[in-house]
């Protein structure tokens, strides 16, 4: 194995034209992931001339391929992770090392110092979920879960998991667990877990305001927050201080507590892909060092997933039950040559066990291929961990009013009109509390494993109704944007008056 110094590490792409290297890396990784299972798809990827526009059918095809058999799902995941490692490089000082040639844990690196914030509050006595200015708990929360399940907002497995936590509030503090939360974004479970009394290691980039807020929430809650201190300041960057963080995490997970690694960090552009690989490396190191480690993560709602027949049946039921409105929608579909109101789930895949699957495709071009590849790398790690026998909690998140969404005018407009199509857009505090409750249930009482690995993402999803739409999401996006923009103008006029 290679030997690399202990200073600053940078995870970088191989050399190439700056405006092309990201696409070259992505196509090489995707082609290697599917080559053994679909040589034609691999060849198409390698000869693709406009990856930034043509990536969507590729990822859709990869998803259908993974659903077709456990061998294809697990095998393509392992091949994709291997390809990413083979292509990336670590740079330190004047030394460049192939990532696959470096033994990360053997690098001499002093771990950061540790800051600690201990809560002065009491652990949670029941699960409480903020929702539309109220607090849902016990019976009111169960009623809402039932409504969401019946409307196709969440999958039955998600509702059942949260209901188990309602019945077992003693699980909320996660006694006996120590959770690594990499990322402090709006949908991570960090804040709810601290509020409930959990023992958490938090890894996030430096930022005085962010860390003041996190420490304050930890002290007000009932849990314990430990975090890295670099040069006396809280926070650390995974892609530049990687060996030090490996040692720091290992040091704090050496006791009797069951370790959980949650990778929740996201970034835009090619940097998001490098970050996803860094999270994969952290997870792989911990899973190897502690075989009892559980893996956690959340999936983007605007991605494509394999979904079972029950989801397809619900969407088709809504398609056939539109009434008079359906005539106008069908006319628009004909006039626009299926650009608008294209029926959902037109293709089926039968897996090795005879079960029928389809692909829920909510990919939108503005996301770009880097975002989708970064998400797929994290999903590949979840599949590989599941295959190795680890507990895996990986939940598809609902569409949420995050800061990033509010900053994108077209997406925000679509979200404003989403209720007209039977969807539910959640506030961040509602979404992260529900997602954290799902994690608590998965750790304390894991659901029985399904023979198809893709069920990791399908059975317990909280997709907000995206999967239950009777139409392909992209085919109603222009209508949703136009309707939302009009609603925003009317609302503004009302505000002015």
Can you tell me about this structure?
There is one protein chain. With 497 residues, the chain is an alpha/beta fold. It folds into 2 domains: 10-109, no CATH class; 113-305 and 364-400 and 428-466, NAD(P)-binding Rossmann-like Domain (Rossmann fold, 3-Layer(aba) Sandwich). 47% of the residues lie in helices and 15% in strands. It has helices at residues 21-34, 39-46, 51-68, 70-87, 139-151, 156-167, 190-196, 208-220, 242-252, 270-289, 309-320, 325-335, 369-387, 403-407, 409-416, 428-444, 455-458, 473-496; strands at residues 10-12, 89-92, 95-98, 113-118, 128-131, 134-137, 177-182, 199-203, 224-230, 233-234, 258-263, 294-299, 304-308, 349-350, 356-361, 392-396. Strands 4, 7, 8, 9, 10, 11, 12 and 16 form an 8-stranded mixed sheet that branches. The protein has a 3-stranded antiparallel sheet with strand order 1-2-3. Strands 13-15-14 form a 3-stranded antiparallel sheet. Strand 14 (349-350) and strand 15 (356-361) form a beta hairpin. Helix 1 (21-34) runs antiparallel to helix 2 (39-46). It is globular, with a radius of gyration of 23 Å. Mean pLDDT is 90; it is low at 1-6 and 493-497.
Q: Quick summary of this structure?
A:
This protein is an alpha/beta fold and 497 residues long. The protein has helices spanning 21-34, 39-46, 51-68, 70-87, 139-151, 156-167, 190-196, 208-220, 242-252, 270-289, 309-320, 325-335, 369-387, 403-407, 409-416, 428-444, 455-458, 473-496, and strands spanning 10-12, 89-92, 95-98, 113-118, 128-131, 134-137, 177-182, 199-203, 224-230, 233-234, 258-263, 294-299, 304-308, 349-350, 356-361, 392-396.
């Amino acid at each position: 194995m290679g030997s690399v110094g202990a200073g600053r590490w940078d995870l970088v792409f191989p050399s190439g034209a700056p405006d092309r290297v990201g696409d070259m890396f992505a196509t090489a990784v995707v082609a290697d992931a599917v080559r053994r299972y679909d040589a034609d798809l691999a060849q198409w990827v390698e000869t693709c001339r406009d990856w930034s526009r043509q990536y969507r059918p590729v990822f859709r095809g990869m998803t259908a391929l993974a659903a077709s058999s456990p061998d294809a799902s697990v095998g393509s995941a392992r091949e994709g992770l291997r390809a990413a490692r083979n292509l990336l490089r670590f740079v330190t000082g004047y030394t460049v090392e192939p990532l696959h040639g470096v033994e990360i844990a053997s690098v001499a690196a002093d771990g950061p110092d540790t800051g600690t914030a201990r809560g002065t509050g009491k652990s949670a006595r029941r699960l409480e979920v903020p929702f539309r200015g109220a607090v849902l708990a016990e019976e009111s929360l169960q009623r809402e879960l039932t409504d969401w399940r019946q409307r196709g907002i969440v999958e039955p497995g998600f509702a059942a998991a949260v209901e188990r936590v309602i019945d077992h509030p003693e699980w909320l503090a996660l006694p006996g667990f120590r959770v690594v939360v990499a990322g402090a974004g709006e949908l991570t479970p960090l804040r709810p877990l601290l509020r409930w009394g959990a023992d958490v290691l938090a890894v996030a980039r430096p930022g005085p305001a962010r860390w003041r807020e996190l420490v304050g929430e930890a002290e007000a809650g009932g849990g314990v927050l430990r975090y890295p201190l670099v040069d006396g300041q809280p926070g650390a960057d995974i892609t530049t201080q990687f060996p030090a963080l490996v040692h720091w995490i290992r040091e704090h997970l050496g006791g009797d507590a069951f370790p959980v690694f949650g990778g929740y960090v996201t970034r835009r552009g090619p940097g998001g892909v490098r970050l996803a690989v860094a999270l994969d490396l952290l997870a792989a190191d911990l899973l190897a060092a502690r075989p009892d480690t559980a893996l956690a993560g959340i999936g983007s709602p605007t991605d494509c997933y394999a979904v079972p027949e029950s989801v397809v049946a619900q969407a088709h039921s809504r398609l056939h039950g539109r009434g008079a409105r359906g005539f106008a929608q069908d006319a628009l579909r004909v006039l626009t040559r299926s650009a608008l109101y294209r029926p959902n789930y037109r293709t089926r895949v039968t897996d090795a066990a005879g079960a029928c699957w389809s692909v829920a495709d909510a990919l939108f071009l503005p996301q770009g291929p880097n975002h989708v590849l970064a998400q797929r790398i994290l999903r590949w790690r979840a599949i590989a961990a599941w295959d190795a026998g680890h507990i895996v909690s990986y939940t598809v998140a609902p569409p949420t009013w995050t800061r990033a969404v509010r900053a994108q005018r077209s997406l925000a407009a679509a979200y404003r009109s989403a209720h007209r199509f039977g969807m539910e857009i959640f506030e961040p505090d509602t979404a992260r509390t529900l997602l954290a409750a799902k994690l608590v249930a998965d750790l304390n009482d894991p659901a029985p494993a399904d023979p198809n690995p893709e069920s990791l993402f399908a059975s317990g999803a909280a997709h907000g109704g995206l999967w239950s739409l009777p139409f392909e999401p992209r085919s109603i996006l222009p209508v949703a944007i136009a309707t939302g923009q009009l609603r925003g103008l009317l609302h503004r006029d009302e505000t002015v008056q």
